[in-house]
Write a structure and sequence with these properties.
The complex is a heterodimer of chains A (about 200) and B (about 200). Chain A is built from eight helices and no strands. Chain A has about 200 residues and is mainly α. Chain A has helices spanning about 10-15, 25-40, 45-55, 60-75, 80-120, 125-150, 155-170, 175-190. With about 200 residues, chain B is mainly α. Chain B has a domain at about 15-125. Chain B is built from nine helices and no strands. In chain B, helix 2 runs parallel beside helix 6 (about 95-125) and helix 5 runs antiparallel to helix 6 (about 95-125). Chain B is globular and about 60 Å long. The chains are: A mainly alpha (about 200), B mainly alpha (about 200).
């Protein structure tokens, strides 16, 4: 009589009880492939949450969100790091490899086809004109990346100074990324070192 | 056209058939991997520097094309590195181009993936470490500065006329104000370009 929804609104309440058994390498490969295929229109992160947490029930929402935090914190593309986190959690480093392969196989093959088509036909005038337009739109997307995360730093004068110094070093003085990060990184870490614990807090 | 030819001849593409070059390229991508803060887009200027200025595999226009294609194609946009690898070896034939693409993508992903495996397995140990907190808070503002610099670099690489800049600024504003899929912006801008309204 009472109809329970397939996936409850609050996964935290239910997830502890009915988690699926740990996925095998094969499960990881095909699970991440499903995520990659579902996300063909975009929204990879949302799709991976829907499939991993709600549909396949490999982990609860808390573990998933922890994974996202780690994936964003560490170097590397976020989505790829997330696949590595899921794979490593269940089957160690070989599991990470299986998840990674599942996530990349189809999109990468497709991109290779796109690339070969591009290099074969790029000299056609129509292709060049079309791309001139697409490129202008893509440049707008690139420009929006900084503005997207600007809000969270507006109250912090030191953060804005650091960002400005980094920007100047790269765009005005043409210093390469690695030296910039190697110099600015430790300075910024020293400034933001949590106070109250041992360290060089300022 | 002559300007393009002059640019190409001013810079000789490094052949990947030479082992020394191949190893140098792999080393460059491997060492960049751990500097891909904030999801990987922070590396775009470095990719441009390597493939256009240093190794001369691509012209600036081609780099912009590949960036746009990687953004438009489904899947993580960091697969751009695979396209750069393909461009590097396109002269040697499609088989070499594919091999080079896979090698480049593997090189850029390997170090960050290894680190991520370690991080995933030992997260509980350093979740509350002051190093983790300082890293997260300190590298955020630096990532912000890098992203602005990268945005400007791509803008200058991609756009060569008033209408192109106009399209870029409108798309930028729409990206920030709306939730419309960027695929639409690229499709519409592509049409405008096809009609000859955006030139380079």
């Amino acid at each position: 009589m009472i109809e329970l929804p397939e996936s409850p609104d609050d996964p935290d309440l239910s997830s502890q009880v009915d988690l699926a058994p740990a996925p095998s390498h094969r499960d990881l490969f095909f699970g991440m492939m499903q995520v990659a295929l579902s996300a063909f229109g975009g929204g990879l992160s949302a799709w991976s949450q829907r499939i991993i947490v709600e549909q396949r029930r490999w982990m609860d929402n808390t573990s998933f969100l922890t994974g996202l935090t780690v994936a964003r914190l560490f170097p590397g593309p976020n989505q790829i790091n997330m696949a590595v986190y899921i794979g490593a959690r269940f089957q160690g480093s070989t599991g990470a490899l299986a998840a990674l392969a599942g996530m990349l196989l189809v999109p990468f093959s497709l991109l290779m086809l796109v690339g070969m088509t591009y290099f074969t036909f790029r000299t056609l005038p129509l292709v060049d004109r079309l791309l001139a337009g697409v490129v202008a739109a893509a440049a707008g997307m690139a420009l929006s990346m900084g503005f997207k995360i600007l809000d969270q730093y507006l109250q912090d004068r030191v953060a804005l100074m650091l960002a400005l110094a980094t920007f100047m070093a790269m765009s005005v003085f043409h210093i390469r990324l690695i030296p910039v990060v190697l110099v600015a990184g430790p300075l910024a870490m020293a400034w933001y070192w949590p106070r109250g614990s041992a360290g060089s807090g300022q | 056209m002559t300007a393009a030819l002059l640019l190409v001849s001013a810079c000789t593409p490094k052949s990947l058939g030479d082992w020394v070059n191949l190893l140098a390229v792999i080393r460059d991508f491997l060492s960049l991997s751990l500097f891909s803060l904030g999801g990987g887009n922070t590396l775009l200027s470095e990719y441009h520097h390597l493939s256009v200025d240093e190794y001369c595999w691509l012209t600036s226009n081609q780099f912009a094309d590949l960036y746009a294609l990687a953004e438009a194609a489904p899947g993580p946009s960091s697969m751009l590195v695979g396209l750069l690898g393909m461009g590097a070896a396109w002269q040697e034939g499609p088989a070499w181009a594919l091999l080079s693409a896979v090698a480049a993508e593997t090189a850029i992903l390997l170090p960050s993936t290894l680190l991520m495996v370690i991080a995933s397995l030992s997260w509980n140990r350093f979740r509350d470490s002051p190093w983790r907190i300082a890293f997260e808070r300190g590298l955020g503002p630096i990532t912000l500065g890098i992203l602005f610099s990268v945005g400007l670099k791509i803008l200058r690489t991609a756009d060569h006329g008033f209408t192109a800049y106009l399209v870029s600024f409108v798309v930028c504003a729409l990206m920030l104000r709306t939730r419309i899929s960027p695929l639409w912006f690229m499709a519409i801008a592509g049409l405008l370009g096809g009609f000859g309204l955006i030139y380079r």
